[in-house]
Amino acid sequence: MTTPLPKPIIDLTGITKSFGTFQALKGINATINEGEFFSLLGPSGCGKTTLLRMIAGFESPTDGTIVIAGQDMAGVPANRRPTNMVFQSYAIFPHLSVADNVGYGLKTRKLPKAEIAREVDQALQMVDLGGLGSRAAHELSGGQRQRVALARALVMKPKVVLLDEPLSALDKKLRDQMQVELRQLQQRLGITFILVTHDQEEALTMSDRIAVMFDGRIAQLATPEELYRRPVDRRVASFIGVMNFLDARATGRMNGHLALDIPALGSIELPSAQVPEGLELRNLETIGIRPEMLTILFEGSEQTEHVARGEVTGTAYYGDMTYYSVRLPGHSEDVTISMRNTAGRSIVPPGSEVPVGWGADSIVLFQ
Amino acid sequence: MLTGERRQGLALISPTLLYSLLMLAAPLIMVLTFSFWTQNYLELDTTLTLDNYREAWSKPIYSTLIFRSLKISLIVTLVTVVLAFPIAYYLSFHVKQRKALWLFLITVPFWTSYLLRVFLWKVILGYNGVLNTALKGLGIIEEPLTFLLYNANAVVLTLAHAWAPFAILPIFVALEKIDRSLLEAAEDLGDGPVRRFFRITLPLAMPGVVASTLIVLIPTVGDFITPKLVGGTDGLMIANMIQIQFGKANNAPLGAALALSSMLIVASISAVIFLLGKRFGGKVQ
Amino acid sequence: MKSALKAFPSKWLAVYAVAYMVFLYAPVILLPMFAFNDATVISFPLTGFTAKWFGVLWQTEALHGAVRNSLVVGLSSAVLSTVLGACAARAAARYRFPLKRGIMSFILLPLVLPEIIVAVALLVLLMQLGMPLSLVTVVLGHVLICTPFAIAILSSAFQGLDQSLEEASFDLGETRWGTFRRVILPLVMPGVVSSLLITFTISLDEFIIAFFLTGTEVTLPVYIWSQLRFPGKLPSVMALGTILLVLSVLLLILAEWFRRRSARKQGIEASATGGFA
Fold it and tell me: N or C: which end of chain A has fewer CB atoms below 10 A?
């Protein structure tokens, strides 16, 4: 498969933002490509919403430049930017009908009435609200409001759609459904979407690329898979999914391998492909292992590269999965191991001694 | 952006603020200045002096009037708030569906001409008034009662009537804000209805009670229509004297000193009430 | 809410509430009674039905002047105080700025100041400025005491306005002015109308400030005050009062209706206490 070279649509360079003495953004550099589903992921207060509002034009950076579609946005107000936003509260105009809400921006452009009506119809069809144009705003359910907000942005044919936690007000089931729909819609239209969210699962399932933000900085910008498999540091690793951290020490390099001593598990040699560039061996103190990369070996289980011994201290049953807390010798905190509940496999009761299987490819090293 | 927001906010409020400065602050400062001047018929002497205050505080007639005004206002306030509380309580806890209608009905009499309302109390309480006629008709009395009108009681009754909605509304709002589960919790922890009322409901309603106390107390001290129409000579209050000084007596500086003196006293009483209420209501905002 | 939550027996409170309402309405009920009573003396027993006192009103020239003056004063005060109130309410609801609390309390001060203080203070200032007393000076005073009421009413309208609505409008390409016209104004309009009606009603009924600040042209309450001294005029004053009562109640109902409509439009439950809460 040949992928065309990505064309940048938004360029963020050296962006900072201060509110008084508080620094909300401390130097953001990123490029967002055309047709990409891009997420800004981070805990509340990390600056992700400020950054989104800056792209929309509601805040101006203290320093740095925002270029959208080749044009520097400094001094360009929100109403003249090729971006449209889906607000967290949806901001549906309460005094207007659904159709008037969706047609609001087209009316500003002074398009003829018939054309507005046609475009509005199309947009409503697109979000599965066909025929609801005459509904009053307060007659809509939460999910419908979300769709109206989306249609209202899409009908403007923006170069970039900005979504500020658009699913946070919906219940779990509807949220899962909307995640899929949003992603499909974005892929069909080929418009750039920028999503702000604090929900890592949402970001992982929907995005082409994710910028993980902490304290006004981008900690890592990568594809979902890369983020999950090779988080750059402990903070990213524990924000995305579950990660066990174990003490470790580098004992040397030989034959393109890195020799590690992990007291809780044993010694191992890692192929250098797994070692991040620029890693200072002296600074290596911790490694990470995802719960699904450790296995409790049952009779007849597939053999693993290495085996350690542990004691089950607790279990949490999730239906398809069981999460075990396991104490490893020489490690103060219990590690979490997730096991698929396959047919005929019973749950190991707490107190049991179990063999724990692991391998070189389980191990994540941080910069 | 923050500085922009501050600037926009100030710019937007500036017309209103300017108006208040010109029409409220400037006049009040003017009154303050005036109170240190003296006037002899048409001549205004702008030498600063405390003579007006000396006169206002030492002459028996003025101190009697100020004292009486305070006494009447405090009684009015007490009567009004005590009468209002059960109504607010009834509306908040017992009325289910037509709360808005009740509130509307309570405010309607307040929107009829104040002058006429006071005058009609005169009609009710007068020698040949409604009350006397009715009591005579029922055979309860033989001669009309004369203690009804032209005294301090009549002033108290009339003012308690005039300020009723102002006393009810703040208490009602405070009662409405009380989370009903707190009452259930108190009951669950063993309080009976009466104990619960005094331990939970009343302390939480205290901000409303204090608000209505102040809302009634402060303006009633300055009322002069009611004393003039139903108060007789015993019911005259300080505001009548202030009006006379600005009118017939043509001694505005003395009037200003009287006005400011009574305001000062009312303000300090209000502060005491506020602090007491805070103490009783505990840490409720 | 079950009856377990009530500290006092409902029955007694209900009886008290009814008695209280009788107390509240006692003087008001008398107004129409005497207005239609066929006697020159205001006392019981009533002697018969007549509408002639309303006819007397029709022929009293001085009254017509007072009505005209009151309408002029009421309309001007309503418009000015609503504009000033809207500025303050919007600033308070939307922006943070230095000394906000202090400024707002100062503007709302007339709510707790005895009217006689306001009246006297304005009188002193006007005297010093050498400004002749007229309807204009009455309006100046009325705007001062009406503005806090306007702010109370408009605050709830402006506070109900989600800021993201303005941003959404801006984001969809609309200008500041366009946003004001297409989003803000329609949403606060019912509050504005309600404020106009309430402040008009307050001005129409205000006596003390009008009494101190009026010149040769009197407003309606000042006229009524002057008539109260003449027993012969009282029945027609009762008739006038009845008309004013009906008018005020109608205006109030209208104001309440607008306020509720405003709340409903924005999808918020209208609180029973409205702007006073």
Answer: N
State the sign of the Cα–Cα–Cα–Cα dihedral B52, B57, B61, B64: positive
The distance of A51 to chain C (nearest Cα, Å) reads: 16
Set of chain C residues whose Cβ sits within 8 Å of the Cβ of B169:
273, 276
CB contact under 8 A, C17 and B90: yes
A61 and A32, same domain (yes or no): yes
Structurally, chain A folds into a number of domains equal to 2
In angstroms, the CA C233 to CA C229 distance is 8
Q: Are residues A256 and A230 in the same domain?
A: no
Chain B nearest-CA distance from A60, in A, is: 8
Residue C7 has pLDDT above 60, yes or no: no
Closest residue to C168, CB basis, from A91, A95, A109: A91
Same domain (yes/no): A135, A14: yes
Residue C265 — very low, low, confident or very high, per pLDDT cuts 50/70/90?
low
Q: Per the structure block, which two tokens stand in for A264?
A: 């809780």
Q: What is the CATH number of the domain that holds A359?
A: 2.40.50.140
- Please give the biggest Cα pair distance in chain A: 76
Structure tokens at A242: 């579950």
The full set of domains in chain B, from first to last, is 51-280 (1.10.3720.10)
CA distance A40 to A46: 10
pLDDT at B250: 77
Domain boundary among A212, A238, A264: A238
Average pLDDT, chain C: 83
Q: Does C175 touch chain A (CB under 8 A)?
A: yes
Q: Structure tokens of A164?
A: 């500020």
Please judge whether B19 and C23 are an interchain contact, meaning their C-beta atoms are less than 8 angstroms apart.
no
Work out whether strand A257-262 and strand A266-271 pair parallel, antiparallel, or are unpaired: antiparallel
A149 and A166, same structural domain?
yes
Q: In this structure, what CATH number is given to the domain that contains residue A164?
A: 3.40.50.300
Asked if residue A331 and residue A213 are part of one domain, the reply reads no
Report pLDDT digits (tens) over B46-67: 777 787 888 888 888 888 888 8
Structure tokens given for A65: 């430049």
How many CB atoms sit inside 10 A of residue A5's CB? 5
Domain limit, last residue, from A238, A268, A298 = A238
Quick one: how many helices (H) and strands (E) in chain C? 12, 0
Kind and range of the H or E element at B76?
helix B60-89
Which residue bears the tokens 């959404």? C168
- The reply to whether A3 falls in a domain is no
pLDDT in tens, B193-246: 788 888 888 888 888 898 888 888 888 888 878 887 887 777 777 888 888 888
Q: Are A265 and A306 in contact (CB under 8 A)?
A: yes
Distance separating alpha carbons of residues C107 and C222, to the nearest angstrom: 27
Q: Angle of helix C10-35 relative to helix B114-125, nearest 10 degrees?
A: 100
Q: Give the least confident one: A206-220, A272-286, C212-226.
A: A272-286
Amino acid at A85: M
The verdict on residue A76 lying in a domain is yes
In chain C, residues with a C-beta closer than 8 Å to the C-beta of A108 are: 172-174, 178
pLDDT at B284: 47
**Complex ipTM, two decimals?**
0.81
Please tell me whether residues A204 and A248 are part of one structural domain.
Answer: no
Residue A2 resides in a domain = no
B187 vs B200: CA distance, rounded Å = 10
pLDDT digits (tens, 9 = 90+) for C80-126: 999 999 999 999 988 888 888 999 999 998 888 888 888 888 988 88
Cβ proximity of B69 and B221 under 8 Å? yes
Token pair 């899962």 is at which residue? A176
Quick one: which H or E segment has residue A161? strand A160-164
Q: State whether A181 and A55 are in the same domain.
A: yes
Confidence of residue C39 (pLDDT cuts 50, 70, 90): confident
State both tokens at B161. Answer: 């009537």
Domain containing A131 equals 8-238
